[in-house]
Amino acid sequence: MSEQAAIYPGQHGAAASDAPRQPSRPPARRIRPPRWLPGLLLPAALLATAELAVRAGMLAPNLLPPPSAILETIAELAQRGLAGHVAASALRVAAGFAAGALAAILLGTATALHRPTHAFFDPTVQALRAIPSLAWVPLLLLWLGIDEAPKLVLIAIGAFFPVYMGVAAGIRGVDRKLVEVARLYRLSASQQARQVLLPAALPAILTGLRNGLGLAWMFMVAAELIAASKGLGYLLSDGRETSRADIVLAAILLLAILGKASDSLMLRLEQRLLAWRDSFESHDHA
Amino acid sequence: MTMLDIRIDDKSYCGQKVLGPLHLHLKQGEVVSLLGASGSGKSTLLSILAGLDRDWRGSVQLDGTRLQGVHPAISLVFQEPRLFPWLTVAENLRFGLPSADDCGCELEMLLEETGLQGLGQRLPKQLSGGQAQRAAIARGLMRRPRILLLDEPFSAVDAFTRMKLQDLLLGIAARHQLAILQVTHDIDEALYLSDRILVLRAGGGPLHGEFTVPSARPRSRSDASLLPLKDRMLDLLHLAEQAG
Description:
A: flat; B: six-stranded mixed sheet; 11 strands
């Protein structure tokens, strides 16, 4: 019961009982469109415009094949091992992201909790963060050859930095007042980290993980464009070499769908783990 | 008999004296309010007693034993509830307790005593301001302290809720034989709740004033006999403000 309700018992019911009775009418059922529908409107409009523009002869089909042709290409690729390409890319992203994120969580936590560790590692991490992804490629190829290892390392590098930033900034930004409460209960440093700092930093950590996953997909394409015989990046490269714009666009479309799907999964995880948050978003979606 | 003996020789921030020399005591079951101008070190004193502030000179003795740092016999309730938002009310109350002390009946009793029965599984965001402050008080009581320190605990709630929480606090203090030391800016609140009222001096030094509230409990909020005492305290607080 709310404080006000406790002070004025029965108040909430008064207005209803004093109001003139209305003839009972079945409540009107309001049909609400699914939440995902508005997000589909823009891509659908773009695809429809492209289809019409190509069919009307306004755009050259060899440069921009109509979406219907791209769908046909996807169907055709599906007969010739598209699933293997998708699986190879997805597995690389999963493995590289897991390794990069794990390393980032460990190092980010250490630098946030221990000042000397921060002083030792953080300047180097910030300098490495400024290096563009493609600059790593020749070095990784030299060091690790052209097998899976350089691809996974490149993806892990891509995922590492946003997760590191999220973890370190999240922990350092924890409300001092909550830490004071933990001190009142004489928690050990590890108990404080586990029971207060990490849960309080979780919103920033999850944002870092989401950004890291997005970058992992981008770095996967960079890795596969350079040296791969399987994967969506390989399909992009193959389409360019054979002047098949439909294959290039099919690979781009699949990358967009896979990236969005993995981001949606992360978003669901975030909403589930952060259900306690009293944020603007939680009110907005209530 | 004195339960808590407090001697602050010196507490300074960046070379600026905040507290001391100051000598206070607290008896079992006694309710004492601390008043004073802003910057007179009221909240700092509570931080020292709770063991959160270690950078000071002096001593705090509980039943003749010198305290070092945080002690389970002393609980602090802050101005804001400071509940962990990811834990339910029940989990907040159990926070930091060894699992051996995790007695469900104690928890249920405290929830009932603080008017939170049925709300144990709610998250802090689902509580009203008054309910959250009740939960903070209940959390402070879970360790079965002998002394409850309160740092302006009712300043953020509306007037009706404040009155209810004040009565709740008096009931809890009486039932648990708790000594309470609270910081407040509200003279009426101090007069309603306290056995003694202490006025701190801005910039350190001994107490600016000490008043014993003569009225017996239960008190009326409009007790006219306390008006002369209120006037004296107002005069003293004006002087303290000017001195600060």
